Amino acid sequence: MYRAAFLGCGPRARSHAEAYQHVTGGTLAALCDLNAERLNDFGNTYQVAARYHDFATMVAAEKPDLVHVVTLPKLRVELLTQAVELGVPAVIVEKPLATDLDDLAAIAALDGRGTKIVVNHQLRFHRRFIELLEDVAVGRIGELRFIDGSCASRTSEQGSHLMNLIWSLNGNSPATLVQAGCGGTLGLIGDGPYGHPGPDNAWALLEFANGVRGSFICGCGAPRNGDPNVWFQKRVTAYGDAGHVSWSMVGWSKQLAGQERLSGPVDYRAEDVIGQAGLTDAVFAWLADEAAVHPTCLAVSAAESRSILATYASTVAQAPVALPLANDEPLLPPLRAALGV
Fold first, then answer.
1. What is the pTM of this model?
2. Helical axes 11-18 vs 268-288, angle rounded to 10°
3. Residue 174: DSSP 8-state
4. Which of 169, 142, 137, 128 shows the shortest CA–CA distance to 259?
5. pLDDT tens, 43-96?
6. For residue 187, what is the DSSP state?
7. Is residue 330 exposed (0-12), middle (13-18) or buried (19+ Cβ within 10 Å)?
8. Domains annotated on the chain, with CATH
């Protein structure tokens, strides 16, 4: 049984911890947080006695196989680098992986240095989405032509989940061209709400190496499903030449080749804890078998992140941009200038 530790015991970490009631490959063994009250409350809730205020001390004493890094994006480079230097076997890090290109490049450079880094895109592991993913992969909608995805929050918030769903449905074929427009400056002032700097709205057309095309919409242009919660507006539809599959936070539908249309509700809150457990167990499976590479590993997640950041580059250039981007220079400063911040 593998041993897991948490770095960060804030509200988001509780979703990671709740999943351990369903995780089969490991147990929650240690916690670390600078805030003593938050650390002790979390430890008492989940009955974890080993509690630390220093990451290196925790790793040396507990030797965890997996560390959940559940902190603000601005700490990603520092903490992931430290995890690699401390020899942590595996890390699950919260999304977004990075909010600008220079940080993303620094994190991507950690790949292959001994620590298996996985981004926490748990929606990819929701049971209904896995079913729809298989329908696409085995050709039940015919040849995949177009993927349409949207979310009502910003690129630097739920946009990361959305791009992961798009890439998953397309078999992780890399994006080769992005044409986009970004707008709205509230999220670009300072570090933005929640430490996730990024434009309020984005619209993009994507071209992928396998010939599939897609749309990526974040913010005010996204369709709404009636739920008042802005975080519950993620949706994605894959269209083939003989059918479609569609998933959202509240429902699903599919029309497979030669069959009638099927649909039903999604109980997101119930599904999410199962999805989180599936993502976590997939890390333990990768630790046990090098060939069982995690679907949201660093190499894939970094490429997805570059596709999102390319929307900024396209907005600045007022033109389509090819991927990979020409350099790793920060994109938020020129985007702020282009939008008048």
1. 0.96
2. 70
3. P
4. 142
5. 999 999 999 999 999 999 999 999 999 999 999 999 999 999 999 999 999 999
6. G
7. middle
8. 2-123+274-296 (3.40.50.720), 125-266+302-335 (3.30.360.10)
